């Protein structure tokens, strides 16, 4: 009997291949398969959301930018009275009064550097969450910051000495006494009460210079004397004080190098290990470690298991469904997708509604401005995360709802049913197959890309702003330093800047006006001085200094007319620019060269400095629109070099006045600064605004007026309207005096709206 029963079962199975679908175990397994498939869809939504947010740098960058975190750090947090103990301790060894701490923090820690350091930490955190690193190694490279510390005193003193307008002084002895008092106050890191301005004879210049340098160590006097004498020869007491002040024994102004060494020791040679210090302060990193375990599982095993197990579950549901009822099978898949999307959507919605209960609360001891910034960042991050999750969840939900609706329409719509019945079986099979593939592709691609669109891609920043990436090169404005190499820091006679070129770049300069020369022979000096813009008395002073400055030095130099009045090596300076640009990959920089060397010598210097790969080659036709800053950054062609002459022979070395125009540059009174055409004529795409006063050399005192934010912005607007082209290069003397940088930022902000 048993044998005949087995034979009968085998006969039935062969006669009805789908009979196993009616077995008792099939129904509960189908229910389980539905649950598993729904869970797998939900898991894919969660994994896609994490991948597009927590595991992407663009997510963090977008949150910081949306909340203007960098601007608020300087404009609100650091000026909050409750932040003063922290900000004071950051610069406790530097000669910076409390009232100007935040302004000098921008010098020591420029916003572009803050963004770079923050991006480094974001990259380290994302790498940790992705599993690229087994340890959380968030360490901050302080070398970009420390590089600025040594220059702060020099720049600060230049600004300090410019804070007082000179008053006429006819009595040399009285002037000397007032200079002596001013020097004492500068050595203490305080603002001078007043500065005298006198017409000094050569003998008086020697006397006053000796008096100013009497407190400087003897080994420093010889190198400082030309700079001090040169400044006093044109009545520029401010530059003389700024040059001598940092070298006085015990001067707070001279502590920049000491601070740099101390900070290097504290930071283990330049890197600050934030995690180690946080753990030492009792901060638990267990939450980050748990989050990392979760993200690694979700982006690895969870995704693979969801695809494989979910796929097998759907296959089982399809083959175990009623034979000949493809519509019901499709409806089952539709319900799985719809429910699998609805569950995470409900979860993300609940998280968004309960955001206030999920936010970390800052300690009560924190300044309100800092606590508010952190809270806004958390809220924005959570909102962006849930938006990305909802975007991912809506894809399977919409696809499932569409599929369920379509199956109901198919069953109840007679005309459609007759059309389907009229098709051959092969055609119907193809239609179902194509629809299934299209549906699966739309769900997978939608789940992958929808949260990425909501979370935001990794952002590109151009000259410190994501918005500026959309401006063409000829639409943007650039803070430009006039005679950039001629600085107090590099001991030029009659300098036109205080910080060196690297400091100028850190402080926001994005275009540099420089002069190249070969070191002149003694007999050539007189001829050069005749065509220089030195004042007549300054020419005599430079000529007198020739015998004291040593023999001619080989190679190309950056000099202001006469290399014996101050010079820095061309190739070494270009290498510093290369290093800076490597550290700031989103910055576009322009050099406009008044060339005293040949085009071949210029090209050789750039080649030796390793800058060839960064050089941008302008179109031969000056009327051709320029690329956007974003295109230049993406192509890594971010250095534009013009010659004030004809340029060439290198293709990237074009003559500026073929492409650009300018205003006059010999204004002696701020009230007479016009927009009249000068070199380059009119109608060019690039516009150089010469915005400085020349009065027997550069005027540090007038820089305080003409570099004021409203003064710069109003003149740029007026000249742009008169000439029919927006101003691009705002060239200033003593860029650290006033707020020309703020004016250029405001101009660009208006152009990106």
Explain what the structure shows:
GO terms for molecular function: phosphoric diester hydrolase activity. Keywords: Membrane, Transmembrane, Transmembrane helix. One of its GO terms (biological process) is lipid metabolic process. With 753 residues, the chain is α/β, with parallel strands linked by helices. The protein has three domains: 28-105 and 299-459, no CATH class; 155-257, no CATH class; 467-520 and 570-751, Alpha-Beta Barrel (TIM Barrel). Helices cover 57% and strands 7% of the residues. It has 30 helices and 14 strands. The strands form three sheets. Strands 5, 6, 7, 8, 9, 10, 11, 12, 13 and 14 form a ten-stranded mixed beta sheet that branches. A two-stranded antiparallel ribbon has the order 1-4. A hairpin with a 7-residue loop joins strand 7 (556-559) and strand 8 (567-569). Helix 11 packs antiparallel against helix 12 and helix 29 (709-723) packs across helix 30 (740-751). It is elongated, with a radius of gyration of 35 Å. The model is unreliable at 10-15 (pLDDT under 50).
> In percent, how helical is the residue content?
55-70%
Q: Domain count, please report it.
A: 3
N-end to C-end Cα span = 90 Å
Principal-axes geometry comes out as elongated
Structural class: alpha/beta
**Unreliable stretches:** 10-15
Give the radius of gyration: 35 Å
Keywords: Membrane, Transmembrane, Transmembrane helix
Pfam families: PI-PLC_X
GO molecular function: phosphoric diester hydrolase activity
């Amino acid at each position: 009997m048993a044998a005949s029963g087995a034979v009968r079962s085998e006969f039935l199975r062969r006669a009805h291949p789908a009979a196993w679908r009616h077995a008792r175990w099939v129904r509960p397994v189908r229910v389980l398969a539905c649950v598993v498939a729904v869970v797998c869809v939900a898991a894919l939504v969660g994994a896609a959301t994490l991948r597009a947010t927590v595991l992407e740098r663009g997510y963090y960058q977008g949150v910081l930018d949306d909340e203007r975190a960098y601007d608020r750090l300087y404009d609100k947090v650091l000026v909050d009275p409750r932040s003063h103990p922290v900000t004071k301790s950051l610069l406790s060894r530097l000669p910076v009064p409390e009232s100007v701490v935040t302004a000098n923090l921008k010098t020591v820690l420029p916003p572009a550097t803050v963004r770079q350091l923050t991006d480094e930490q974001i990259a380290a955190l994302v790498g940790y969450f992705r599993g690229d690193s087994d340890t959380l190694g968030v360490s901050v490279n302080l070398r970009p910051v420390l590089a600025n510390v040594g220059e702060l005193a020099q720049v600060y003193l230049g600004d300090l000495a410019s804070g007082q307008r000179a008053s006429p002084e006819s009595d040399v002895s009285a002037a000397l006494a007032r200079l002596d008092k001013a020097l004492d106050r500068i050595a203490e890191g305080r603002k001078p009460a007043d500065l005298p301005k006198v017409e000094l004879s050569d003998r008086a210049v020697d006397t006053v210079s000796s008096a100013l340098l009497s407190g400087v160590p003897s080994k420093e006097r010889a190198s400082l004397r030309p700079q001090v004498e040169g400044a006093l020869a044109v009545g520029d007491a401010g530059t003389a004080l700024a040059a001598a002040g940092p070298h006085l024994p015990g001067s707070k102004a001279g502590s920049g190098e000491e601070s740099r060494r101390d900070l290097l020791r504290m930071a283990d040679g330049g890197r600050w290990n934030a995690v180690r210090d946080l753990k030492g302060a009792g901060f638990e990193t267990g939450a980050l470690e748990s989050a990392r375990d979760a993200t690694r599982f979700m982006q690895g095993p969870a995704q693979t298991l969801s695809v494989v197990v979910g796929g097998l579950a759907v296959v089982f549901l399809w083959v175990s469904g009623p034979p000949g009822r493809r519509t019901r099978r499709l409806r089952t898949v539709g319900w799985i997708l719809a429910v699998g999307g609805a569950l995470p959507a409900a979860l993300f919605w609940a998280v968004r509604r309960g955001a206030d209960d999920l936010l970390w609360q800052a300690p009560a001891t924190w300044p309100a401005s800092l606590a508010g910034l952190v809270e806004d960042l958390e809220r924005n991050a959570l909102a962006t995360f849930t938006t990305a999750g909802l975007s991912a969840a809506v894809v399977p939900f919409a696809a499932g709802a569409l599929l369920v609706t379509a199956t109901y329409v198919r069953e109840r719509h007679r005309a459609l049913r007759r059309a389907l019945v009229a098709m051959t079986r092969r055609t119907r099979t193809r239609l179902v197959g194509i629809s299934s593939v299209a549906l699966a592709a739309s769900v997978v691609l939608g789940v992958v890309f929808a949260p990425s669109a909501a979370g935001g891609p990794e952002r590109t920043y151009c000259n410190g702003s994501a918005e500026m990436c959309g401006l063409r090169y000829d639409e943007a404005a650039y803070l430009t330093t006039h005679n950039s190499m001629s600085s107090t820091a590099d001991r030029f006679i009659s300098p036109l800047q205080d910080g060196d070129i690297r400091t100028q770049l850190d402080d926001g300069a994005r275009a540099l006006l420089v002069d190249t020369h070969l070191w002149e022979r003694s007999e050539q000096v007189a001829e050069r001085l005749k065509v220089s813009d030195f004042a007549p008395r300054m020419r005599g002073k430079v000529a007198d200094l020739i015998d004291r400055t040593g023999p001619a030095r080989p190679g190309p130099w950056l000099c202001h007319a006469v290399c014996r009045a101050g010079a820095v090596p061309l190739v070494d300076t270009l290498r510093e620019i290369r290093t800076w640009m490597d550290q700031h990959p989103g910055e576009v920089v322009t050099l406009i060269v008044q060339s005293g060397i040949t085009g071949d010598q210029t090209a050789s210097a750039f080649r030796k400095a390793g800058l060839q790969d960064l050089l941008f080659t302008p179109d031969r036709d000056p009327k051709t629109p320029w690329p956007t800053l974003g295109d230049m950054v993406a192509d890594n062609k971010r250095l534009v070099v013009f010659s004030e002459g004809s340029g060439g022979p290198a293709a990237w070395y074009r003559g500026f006045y073929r492409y650009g125009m300018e205003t006059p540059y010999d204004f002696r009174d701020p009230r007479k600064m016009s927009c009249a055409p000068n070199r380059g004529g009119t109608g060019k795409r690039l516009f150089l605004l010469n915005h400085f006063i020349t009065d027997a050399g550069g005027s540090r005192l007038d820089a305080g007026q003409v570099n004021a934010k409203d003064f710069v912005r109003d003149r740029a607007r007026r000249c742009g309207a008169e000439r029919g082209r927006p101003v691009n290069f705002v060239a200033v003397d003593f860029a650290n005096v006033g707020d020309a940088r703020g004016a250029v930022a405001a101009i660009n902000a208006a152009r990106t709206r």
